[in-house]
Write a structure and sequence with these properties.
With 619 residues, the chain is α+β, with helices and mostly antiparallel strands. It has 4 domains: 185 residues, Heat Shock Protein 90 (2-Layer Sandwich), CATH 3.30.565.10; 166 residues, 2-Layer Sandwich (Ribosomal Protein S5, domain 2); 135 residues, Rossmann fold, CATH 3.40.50; 38 residues. 37% of the residues lie in helices and 20% in strands. It contains 18 helices and 22 strands. Strands 1, 2, 3, 4, 5, 6, 7, 8 and 9 form a 9-stranded mixed β-sheet that branches. A 5-stranded mixed β-sheet has the order 10-11-14-12-13, sandwiched between helices. The longest helix is centred in the middle third of the chain and has 30 residues. It is elongated. The protein starts with 7 loop residues before the first helix and ends in a 9-residue tail after the last helix. 39% of the residues are buried.
Length: 619
């Protein structure tokens, strides 16, 4: 009942109860060092602190040492007296007595009032009287040795890894605290001390999860003087992760099931971010933003300190105090909103992340709705009629060329390797997926053909394991129209099939714009700059060499063999892999949203800001 079970978590909960008592001394300013030793047998532990030491004088009513009362009587802990602890991880006053009752052996050693005292217990009962083992001792503190009862627990072997992780977390939550951990079985020693506190803890969590933040500076708040003497520490940072990750604590005790303090934090995040987006007109019209969209990708840590926490269950996994939700919300909301206004680049990055989440959610919901509406499922693969598929059924060997126009498609079909190269011609410029609803995207014939050919679905329904080609190559004319079509397709892939880009499956072909013949040799130039370089090299070797220059108006003008030699043949072609560099992810999102979205003002600003760099117009 008190430790949550007799398995491995319950076994370690005994240790957390003893450690938390020591941490309480540190949190309230009475201790600075805790030492934890996992003994050679792996089944017994000693926890020592340099706090005040448990009182050893006679209890006023029970007429036995106070130490013995605390270690043998439920609800006898000193934490019920608010003069002893301002904040405490304990609630029921049963921690020490439960550890004692569930241990074969327990030895309490106390340094207090210039002397050292000791008392031994077995299965919760004292087997010696409290005795003074040293009349002259320097310092103060408490040391508890215990060995859990093998008749009660399924296993009594402690996990050093779990212990180390938990102890280090304690030092993140108490920046002034030092904890030393020694494993006698291996000889390993660890010293944990993190002055950076929860901000440093957040950085550790981001690194551990290999998560990419969308803004540089985290939000950090330490708010004191709250109602009933409560105080709170909070740090937040939005990432590219597909879900939120909030870690909540009360007086340094983890609350994995959250509670009213975590709900207060969520309410504050929702209100502050929505207010910032409203104020700066960052909410797209007709786009519904939910609280889940706002919190998607956020990683946060909240540590609440309060006098009388009411937990759900003795294992303290959820905070129940109803008044705390409003207190925490009020403390954080205004500070977070002001932080966003003081750091507009951070606020805008978070807003963009929120919009991205909302669009993805709407796309996923619409896709799921469409799937549910189907009355029957065909297990026959439906491929678009224009697709010239390849013979190979191995995705790793197969390539899909998405080609601009039927004419170019005809040349590509003749020049391809039928064994591994498939050709899908598109008609004209495809739909701008950034300005269209998912229904319009799904109803668009050309984009629907792309989705059918790839075979892996789109949005949240996308399954990479069903992708039919591991090279998806955009093959467009080397002119402005071709570049525009490539941009429209890339926007579609980015918004609805992003994993293809993330996994490196999307490429852009590099067909030549010019053919250069001189001295019985042929060169292929990608663009005007490439053409000038090649011609300069030819003239440098022989000024009198006659140069013949041919500009391709489009891929359809190329003979199939020419297209094969320059663009299709893996041994000779040039491909650009489409990637999103880690440092450019938010810039990419903003660029696509602004330059491909419905708001024309962003494009106008882009044109006006870059007009001086334009040298040639392709009209």
């Amino acid at each position: 009942m008190y430790i949550g079970g007799t398995g491995k978590p319950g076994l370690h909960h005994l240790l957390w109860e003893v450690v938390d008592n020591a941490v309480d001394e540190a949190t309230n300013g009475y201790a600075s060092q805790i030492d934890v030793v996992l003994h050679r047998d792996g089944r017994s532990i000693t926890v020592s602190d340099n706090g005040r030491g448990i009182p050893v004088d006679k209890h006023p009513t029970k007429k036995i040492p106070t130490l013995e009362v605390i270690l043998t009587t439920l609800h006898a802990g000193g934490k019920f007296d608010s003069s002893n602890y301002i904040t405490s991880g304990g609630l029921h006053g049963v921690g020490a007595s439960v550890v004692n009752a569930l241990s074969e052996d327990l030895v309490a050693t106390i340094k207090r009032d210039g002397a050292t005292w000791e008392q031994r217990y077995e299965r919760g009962k004292p087997v010696t009287k409290l005795k003074k083992v040293s009349p002259n001792s320097r310092g103060t503190g408490t040391s508890i040795y215990f060995r859990p009862d093998a008749d009660i627990f399924e296993t009594v072997d402690f996990d050093a890894g779990i212990i180390a992780e938990n102890l280090e977390t304690k030092t993140y939550l108490n920046g002034a605290l030092r904890i030393a951990f020694k494993n006698e079985a291996t000889g390993e020693k660890h010293e944990y001390h993190h002055e950076g506190g929860i901000e440093e803890f957040l950085g550790h969590k981001l690194s551990e999860g290999k998560l990419r933040p969308v803004h540089v500076d985290p939000f950090v708040l330490r708010q004191e003087g709250m109602v009933d003497g409560a105080r709170v520490e909070v740090t937040l940072q939005w990432t590219e992760a597909p879900r939120e990750a909030l870690y909540s604590y009360v007086n340094g005790i983890p609350t994995p099931d959250g509670g009213t303090h975590e709900q207060g934090l969520k309410n504050a995040i929702r209100s502050a971010v929505r207010s910032y987006m409203d104020t700066h007109d960052l909410l797209p019209k007709k786009l519904d933003i939910s609280a889940e969209d706002i919190r998607e990708g956020v990683m946060g840590i909240v540590n609440l300190f309060m006098v009388d926490p009411q937990f759900q269950g003795q294992t303290k996994e959820k905070l129940n105090n109803p008044e705390i939700k409003g207190i925490v919300t009020a403390a954080i909301r205004l500070e977070l909103e002001q932080f966003l206004n003081r750091h507009p680049s951070t606020g805008d990055a978070i807003a963009t992340r929120v919009v991205q989440a909302a669009k993805a959610r709407h796309a996923s919901r619409a896709a799921a709705t469409k799937v549910r509406r189907k009355t029957s499922v065909s297990h026959r693969l439906n491929l678009p009629g224009k697709l010239a598929d390849c013979a190979s059924t191995n995705p790793e060997d197969s390539e899909l060329f998405i080609v601009e126009g039927d004419s170019a498609g005809g040349s590509a079909k003749q020049g391809r390797d039928r064994g591994t190269q498939a050709i899908l011609p598109l008609r004209g410029k495809v739909l701008n997926a950034e300005q269209a609803t998912l229904k319009k995207v799904q109803d668009n014939k050309e984009l629907s053909n792309v989705v059918q050919a790839l075979g892996c679905g789109l949005g949240d329904q996308l399954e990479l394991s069903k992708l039919r080609y591991h090279k998806v190559i955009l093959l467009m004319d080397a002119d402005s129209d071709g570049h525009h079509i490539s941009t429209l397709l890339l926007t579609f892939f980015y918004r609805y099939m992003k994993p293809l880009i993330e996994e490196g499956f999307v490429f852009i072909a590099q067909p030549p714009l010019y053919r250069i013949d001189a001295a019985k040799n042929t060169w292929w130039a990608l663009d005007d700059e490439d053409r000038e370089r090649i011609m300069a090299d030819i003239k440098k070797r022989n000024k009198n060499t006659k140069i013949e220059l041919q500009r391709f108006k489009g891929l359809g003008e190329m003979m199939p063999q020419t297209l094969k030699d320059t663009t299709l043949d893996p041994e000779k072609r040039r491909l650009l892999k489409v990637t999103i560099p880690d440092a450019e992810r938010m810039v990419t999102e903003q660029t696509i949203s602004q330059l491909m979205g419905k708001d024309a003002s962003a494009r106008f600003d882009f044109i006006m800001n870059n007009v001086d760099e334009v040298q040639d117009l392709d009209v």
